[in-house]
From TrEMBL:
InterPro entries, per the entry: P-loop_NTPase (IPR027417)
Lineage: Bacteria, Pseudomonadati, Pseudomonadota, Alphaproteobacteria, Rhodobacterales
Protein name: Uncharacterized protein
Length: 359
């Protein structure tokens, strides 16, 4: 069996897709060490396992999914086995520990865990871009701020302190900020944590899932909104999410709208945001870091990530001729969706998974 088990816990928006893509493709060269990354179907990650820790609908699958991972890890003699799922962000660490002891007992005594945390404002704006990428409707930075405030989504300190309380020194938290990463790169940082090597040769270039610019978000909303259907049309909602991810990637790769501004917060919202999270930034610095990097990042956001309010009207970024072309494409998608939304959703998901495995 693998000699040591590593849990990569995310968070979301901290380079997890890049790490998982390189692990699945075995796109690295190690000196004298070996890694085993158990795969589940075509998925890049182990989110289906992590979801059994917090989603009631799949609680009954916990034993099957973690036991399947344990079986694969026990049959391999690599130096390190890695389980990676950014959705561990939503799990109770005590539940994960109990699950490891119950269903992964061969490795329970030799486990290490790593999570990355992104400064508050950067995480928020990246999350807003992701909401658009996955087909969310009519979301604005203000609406997302109010939602996150209600759910305590960006209150990091209580959550990460709980991971440390449960797992002790086996848990490591790294700051997802270029100047704080080993060799200023999350891949190098992750492999340094796993193997201790100062540098790992990366031989496979992953898709890095960049944040959309504001004009690109406006375009994506314009293309996807006709697919919304009604709230009762679940098939169309799922299709909208799958197609949105594919369209977002094509928009990025084609550079359409790449010359528009990056997403920022209005100065008024930024003032509320800083006030809301300054205590959490201080608590994170006191508990996990030196030099107050979380506090400094939050204060710096007031000048780096704040600007006048931004429009999400597609007409403000593209010409009439461009909009006619975009409307034509959207009409074609709608016609295909109306014909067979279930089949189209399945095909779109298969295409998305295939794109994720490509460079």
């Amino acid at each position: 069996m693998v000699k040591q088990l590593i849990f990569h816990l995310g968070d979301t928006k901290t380079g997890s897709t890049s790490i998982q893509s390189v692990l699945r493709a075995e796109g690295y060269e190690l000196a004298g060490k070996t890694i085993f990354y158990p795969t589940i179907g075509k998925n890049l990650n182990h989110n289906t396992a992590s979801q059994t820790l917090y989603k009631g609908a799949v609680f009954d699958q916990r034993a099957n999914r973690f036991s399947a991972l344990e079986q694969k890890l026990s049959k391999n003699d690599a130096d390190y086995g890695i389980v990676s799922a950014e959705f561990f962000q939503y799990a109770d660490p005590a539940e994960l520990k109990k699950t490891i002891e119950q269903y992964m007992s061969n490795h329970a005594a030799n486990v290490r865990l790593i999570a990355y945390v992104r400064p508050h404002a950067e995480k928020f704006l990246s999350s807003f871009s992701t909401q658009m990428r996955v087909g969310a409707r009519q979301t604005t930075p203000l609406a997302l701020f109010e939602k996150y405030t209600e759910l305590d989504t960006l209150d990091y300190a209580p959550r990460f302190k709980k991971w440390r309380d449960v797992f002790g020194d086996a848990f490591t938290l790294r700051l997802f900020s270029r100047e704080h990463l080993h060799r200023q790169d999350v891949l190098q940082d992750f492999f340094q944590f796993v193997t201790g090597a100062d540098k790992t040769k990366i031989t496979w270039t992953p898709y890095n899932n960049p944040s959309l610019k504001v004009g690109q978000i406006a375009l994506l909303r314009y293309l996807i909104e006709p697919l919304a259907g009604t709230e009762k049309q679940g098939n169309k909602r799922h299709l909208r999410g799958e197609l949105s991810r594919i369209l977002a990637r094509n928009i990025e790769e084609s550079k359409v709208g790449a010359d528009t501004p990056r997403v920022t917060m209005s100065r008024k919202l930024m003032a509320r945001f800083v006030k809301r999270y300054e205590a959490d930034a201080v608590a994170m610095d006191e508990a996990f870091f030196t030099g107050s990097p979380m506090t400094k990042a939050l204060q710096n956001a007031k000048t780096k990530l704040a600007a006048p309010p931004q429009s999400l009207r597609v007409e403000d970024y593209f010409s009439e001729a461009e909009l006619r072309s975009f409307a034509l494409m959207s009409n074609v998608l709608c016609t295909m969706a109306d014909a067979d939304p279930v089949k189209m959703t399945s095909l779109a998901r298969a295409l998305r998974l295939e794109l994720n495995r490509q460079k």
